[in-house]
Amino acid sequence: MKSPFHIMIIPTLGCPSKCHYCWSSDETSPKMSIETVREITEWLKDYRSDQVTITFHGGEPLLAGAEFYRQALPLISGELAHLKPTFALQSNLWLLTPELAQVLAEYRIPIGSSIDGPEEITDAQRGKGYFEKTMRGYEIARANGLEVRFICTFTNRSVEEKEAIFNFFLERGFPLKLHPALPSLRSEDPKEWALEPEEYGQLLVYLLDRYLENLGRIEVMNINDLCKCIFTRRGTVCTFVDCMGTTLAVGPDGSIYPCYRFIGMPEYVMGNVRDRPTQEDLAQSEAWKLMHAFKEYVDRECAGCSHIKYCRGGCPYNAIAPTDGEVRGVDPHCIAYKRIFDEITDRLNEEMYGSGDMEMGGFGFPPRKGAKPGIMSILRTMATK
Ligand code: SF4
Ligand code: SF4
Questions:
Q1: SS3 assignment, position 6
Q2: In the chain, which ranges are continuous DSSP H helix?
Q3: Ligand 1, pocket-test mutation among 24, 262, 317, 334, most atoms within 8 A of CB
Q4: Is 183 within 8 Å of 191 (Cβ atoms)?
Q5: ∠ CA(238), CA(244), CA(250), 5° rounding?
Q6: Inter-axis angle of helices 334-353 and 197-213, to 10 degrees?
Q7: Nearest ligand, CA of residue 329?
Q8: What is the pLDDT of residues 239-251, one digit of tens each?
């Protein structure tokens, strides 16, 4: 099955927030002009013929302002009508005004935002006042009918507070999507905030247990995705598929990169939208070749791993950006992926073929009375949504 086509538009790398562990903002970054948006639509018209999802990402994409979206959204929707574009936005919401919210609501744009748990924990790692400003934007979004989901970044410090963080999401009724803090390539101490892979693996198992204890009261998106990967035997998020070519990002000046994570790193520019490159043209770039080399490396190095089909070596950015573009290993989070994939597989096998007090059976069978919820319950909950 072909992976969905995803274009990320990065209107600027600037951001008003100063999160301590952020590696992707740049105060000197220019802002994308509407002319560049027009170039993007001209390029995409003939690039691929399947449905496209367009995510506005940053930096902080709302820095582009209401007028940018008022022009860009109808332009893209109209010019690319044959690709049936759907939109998404990743923002800290500080700059969301009722005016901007109405523009986004017209296109029913789902928003991903970021909150790292209770106010003290969020502000300790994202800067004082972050929580309040984001929640203010959240209220404006909700008042205008916009759907907001939060990503929670766990650092090596906040992981100590995992219980308080989980309870925060549970009590507020927010779905939880976690993101492990990555080493910052722009910092003198890249690992200052980074979550170590072993800790990340333990955190995923902890969240699996808490999720099962509270099934029906919270959704832990990562656990859903991981269970789906194992059950369907294929990756269901970009980290666990060969993302090259199905995900691309366009920076403020129209440069094309493999993903938003590479924006601002000139060595990963694959072309520019104004030149209307075809897939074959982009495949000639060094960045594309590098991503392809990563795929071949995974085929070789992960050949003996039982999870290769739905892991695919993890995220190529995590693997190659810290080594200055040399393919020397798979995603360092491999340890965490193995840990949680093993855990879910073992539990699923136990539920389906073992005995004990876990529920058994497939989708067609109701859970056994008194049985503890297990992986099948998560799959069943997802199937009924
Ligand atoms: S480089 Fe990583 S984050 Fe970017 S699309 Fe690929 S897997 Fe996803
Ligand atoms: S879990 Fe590790 S070894 Fe297995 S496929 Fe993923 S990255 Fe490769």
A1: strand
A2: 34-45, 66-79, 98-106, 119-126, 130-143, 162-172, 197-213, 221-232, 279-283, 286-301, 308-311, 316-320, 334-353, 375-383
A3: 317
A4: yes
A5: 90
A6: 30
A7: 2
A8: 999 998 899 999 9
> Which two tokens mark 361?
């059976």
Nearest CA to ligand 1 atom 6: 243
Q: Cα 127 from chain centroid?
A: 22
Closest ligand 2 atom to residue 335 Cα is 2
- Say what the pTM is: 0.90
Distances (CA, A) of 161 to 156, 211, 303: 10, 16, 37
How far is residue 216's CA from residue 289's CA, in Å, rounded to a whole number? 44
CA-closest candidate to residue 8, choices 175, 246, 203, 307 = 246
Best substitution site from 237, 295, 334 to test ligand 2's pocket, by max atoms within 8 Å of Cβ?
334
Per-residue model confidence as pLDDT tens digits over 263-302: 888 999 999 999 999 999 999 999 999 999 999 999 999 9
Q: Is the CB of 336 under 6 A from ligand 2?
A: no
